[in-house]
Hints:
25% of the residues lie in helices and 16% in strands. The chain has 2 helices and 4 strands.
Amino acid sequence: MAPVDARTRSSADRNVFGRQGFGAMRLRDETTADADRDPVAVVHAALDAGVTMVDTADAYQNEELIGRTIRGPPW
């Protein structure tokens, strides 16, 4: 049996992803003067920290924002 990496886990179809995910439920594509509430900066910080799984859903109404953020400029 191969050694288990405590930082990752396998999905049912054997894809490997990090154990630490990012829940994007409360992000919105709105502009704000508060830098701590900038959704693009928040997603970039999560990715920079090594997050490889971003939880998003149509109900969150932010899938396009997450996609644009990961893809990068030009938007």
